[in-house]
From TrEMBL, chain B:
CDD domains, sorted: TRAPPC6A_Trs33
SUPFAM superfamilies: Ligand-binding domain in the NO signalling and Golgi transport (SSF111126)
Leader sequence residues: none
Protein name: Trafficking protein particle complex subunit 6B
Gene: trappc6b
Family statement drawn from the similarity comment of this UniProt entry: Belongs to the TRAPP small subunits family. BET3 subfamily.
Provenance organism: Sphaeramia orbicularis (orbiculate cardinalfish)
Length: 188, 163
């Protein structure tokens, strides 16, 4: 049953789909176990949100290298291009979904990612006593950490969440500033 | 095109590995860093893996017929389950036909981040705890009670023993 890599598009689709479904479930279930553990360890949702963001950040700063190696995407010219790469390449590659990029600010420094579906929340329901939990906050940290490694300081947050009753999941990303390379830490 | 396909096929695995690593770091950081805590952390990771394994096997075997016997179950773990979780099959399955099974993976994925070499062997257990739990959880939902331990002889080979 071991599959070799020289396959046609058709059989790739077959194998790829089933293994993608199952492997994303591994991630989803593991993520759920993590959030459950965090909720046990921390007294309030705010703390859990912060932890998820921090862990996401740690993942992001390493994920970016993995992403650049896999995608061989060059440096983005502007924030719009960055948005497209995030939505159409990165999300697709790692989570199998393609959010849409919308709601650009007039200055072009802020946009929204709209996720019709969020694989992280498959099989998940938020209990009543966790109404302020940002369940998928890991994603914000990942995006923030990854972009920091390519010299972009951004603010990332959830503004809509299907887990909290909204129709879609919306992540808002705002460009703060360009990070200069090789400056000593703490000067800014 | 081939490069993109390859990139995507492994990318979700990479994402899981990053998450697994952060999970390990979190469990270890949130405990007091004393020697005695190591056992408890391993247990925590193993228990998380257990619950994930239960959930995963449920999805995986939704439309599968019941297994003939224990060996059939183990073969499923070695082929389908292992492929689902680690994108490859178990390399070698041995049994004494009295309830002990040894599963050998010669290129265990979660250890690939850890450098080969004796000085890293002491860290291997925490990389294996979650996976042992996965297997134990999967077996549990298939009606098999087990103890799953893992050994690393030469990185990154592991031997899982199901008792």
């Amino acid at each position: 049953m071991s599959r070799q890599s020289n396959r046609t598009t058709d059989s790739k689709k077959m194998v790829g789909d089933s293994s993608r479904i199952n492997n994303s479930e591994l991630f989803t279930l593991t993520y759920g176990a993590l959030v459950t553990q965090l909720c046990k360890d921390y007294e309030n949702d705010e703390e859990v949100n912060k932890q998820l963001d921090k862990m996401g950040y740690n993942i992001g700063v390493r994920l970016i290298e993995d992403f650049l190696a896999r995608s061989s995407i060059g440096r983005c010219q502007d924030f719009r291009e960055t948005a497209d790469v995030i939505a159409k390449v990165a999300f697709k590659m790692y989570l199998g979904i393609t959010p849409s990029v919308t709601n650009w600010s007039p200055a072009g420094d802020e946009f929204s990612l709209i996720l019709e579906s969020n694989p992280l929340v498959d099989f998940v329901e938020l209990p009543d006593n966790h109404s302020t939990l940002i369940y998928s906050n890991l994603l914000c940290g990942i995006l923030r950490g990854a972009l920091e490694m390519v010299q972009m300081a951004v603010d990332v947050r959830f503004v809509q969440d299907t887990l909290r009753g909204d129709n879609v999941t919306e992540i808002r990303m705002k460009f703060i500033k360009r990070i200069e390379e090789n400056l000593p830490a703490g000067d800014e | 095109i081939w490069t993109t396909v390859f990139g995507r096929r492994m990318a979700d695995e990479a994402l899981f590995q990053f998450l697994h690593y952060e999970l390990m770091q979190y469990i270890y950081k949130s405990a007091d860093s004393k020697e005695t805590e190591n056992g408890r952390n391993i247990t925590k990771l193993e228990n998380m893996g257990f619950r994930v394994g239960q959930g995963l096997i449920e999805r995986l075997t939704k439309d599968t017929a019941r297994f003939k016997d224990e060996l059939d179950t183990m073969k499923f773990i070695c082929k389908d389950f292992w492929t689902c979780v680690f994108k490859k099959q178990i390399d070698n399955l041995r049994t004494n036909h009295q309830g002990i099974y040894v599963l050998q993976d010669n290129k265990f994925r979660l250890l690939s981040q850890l450098s080969a070499g004796k000085q890293y062997l002491e860290h291997a257990p925490k990389y294996l705890a979650f996976s042992c739990g996965l297997v134990r959880g999967a077996l549990s939902n298939l009606g098999v009670k087990s103890i799953v331990t893992a050994e690393v002889s030469v990185m990154p080979t592991i031997l899982l023993q199901k008792i």
